[in-house]
C-alpha cells in the first residue's frame, strides 16, 4: 500500500468531500472548515479543517485559526447540540488540539486510523464453534445489536440503534451490522458503513459481552464485514481503532496511517 497516497485519498473523499452520513443531515463548507449538522440524535461536528501546511507563524495567522474555531463553537452552541471536532494527527496547525481545548472542546481517547485493502485481507476466518453470524437486514434484528452493546459497554443502546436504523432506512438492501449468536443469545455485534461514491467502507461499534471476549469472535466479525465490502466493490476498509482492537486488526492486515482524536463540545443550555 502507498500509505501517503491512501491517506491523501482518505482525506479528500471522507473528509473534504464528505457526504451527509444519514437522511436529514447536511454537510456545510464554511471557509476552511467542513462540518455536519445532524437531525435529531444525529452526529454534529467538524470533519475537516484546512488551515495550512505549517503552524501559524504570525499573530495574524494564529488569530485566524482561533477565530475559525470560535466560530464553530458559537455555531453549535447556538444550535444547542453537542458537537465533535474530529482531529487527525497530521492536521495543521500542529497545535490544533491545544487551540481546540482553549476554545472549550474536551479531548477524548485518541485512536489509531487503520486502513487495509480489501483485496489483501484474509476472508476465510471462521467463527468459533457454536457461534453463528447473522447479518442484520431488518428492524426486528436491531434489538439484538442493542442488547449486545448494553452488555459490552454498560449502555450505548440508543446510539448504535439509531445508527443502524438510519442505515436500513436509507438503503434497505444494505447490511449495516452483524450479530454473533450463541443459540439465540447475542454475544457480539459490529457495524459496517458503505460510503457510496468513495473507495472506502468503514468498521464501527465492535462490542463483545465480557464472558465471550478473547475467543476469536471479533476476528470473525471483521472478516464477515470485509467480505460484504469487497462484494460491493469497495477497495479500502478503515477503522478508528482502540488499543484493544488495534493488535487484532493489524494481524489481519490493517496498517496504521495516523491517529484521530475527538474533541467534544458539550451542549449548553
From TrEMBL:
SUPFAM superfamilies: Acyl-CoA N-acyltransferases (Nat) (SSF55729). Transmembrane segments: none annotated. It comes from the Bacteria. It holds the Pfam family Acetyltransf_1. Residues 131-269 form the N-acetyltransferase domain. This is GNAT family N-acetyltransferase. The lineage of its organism: Bacteria, Bacillati, Actinomycetota, Actinomycetes, Kitasatosporales.
Amino acid at each position: 500500500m502507498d500509505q501517503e497516497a491512501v491517506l491523501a485519498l482518505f482525506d479528500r473523499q471522507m473528509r473534504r468531500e464528505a457526504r451527509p452520513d444519514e437522511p436529514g443531515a447536511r454537510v456545510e463548507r464554511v471557509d476552511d472548515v467542513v462540518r455536519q449538522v445532524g437531525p435529531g440524535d444525529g452526529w454534529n461536528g467538524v470533519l475537516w479543517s484546512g488551515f495550512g501546511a505549517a503552524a501559524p507563524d504570525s499573530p495574524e495567522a494564529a488569530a485566524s485559526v482561533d477565530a475559525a474555531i470560535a466560530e464553530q463553537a458559537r455555531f453549535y452552541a447556538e444550535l444547542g447540540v453537542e458537537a465533535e471536532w474530529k482531529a487527525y494527527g497530521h492536521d495543521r496547525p500542529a497545535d490544533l488540539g491545544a487551540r481546540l481545548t482553549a476554545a472549550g472542546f474536551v479531548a477524548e481517547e485518541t485512536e489509531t486510523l487503520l486502513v487495509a485493502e480489501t483485496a489483501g485481507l484474509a476472508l476465510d476466518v471462521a467463527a468459533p464453534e457454536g457461534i453463528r453470524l447473522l447479518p442484520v437486514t431488518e428492524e426486528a434484528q436491531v434489538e439484538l445489536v442493542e442488547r449486545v452493546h448494553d452488555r459490552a459497554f454498560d449502555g450505548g443502546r440508543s446510539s448504535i440503534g439509531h445508527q443502524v436504523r438510519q442505515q436500513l432506512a436509507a438503503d434497505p438492501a444494505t447490511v449495516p451490522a452483524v450479530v454473533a449468536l450463541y443459540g439465540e443469545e447475542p454475544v457480539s455485534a459490529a457495524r459496517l458503513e458503505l460510503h457510496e461514491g468513495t473507495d472506502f467502507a468503514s468498521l464501527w461499534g465492535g462490542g463483545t459481552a465480557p464472558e465471550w471476549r478473547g475467543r476469536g469472535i471479533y476476528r470473525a466479525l471483521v472478516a464477515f464485514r470485509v467480505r460484504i465490502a469487497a462484494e460491493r466493490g469497495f477497495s479500502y476498509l478503515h477503522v478508528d481503532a482502540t488499543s484493544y482492537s488495534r493488535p487484532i486488526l493489524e494481524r489481519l492486515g490493517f496498517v496504521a496511517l495516523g491517529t484521530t482524536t475527538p474533541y467534544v463540545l458539550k451542549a449548553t443550555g
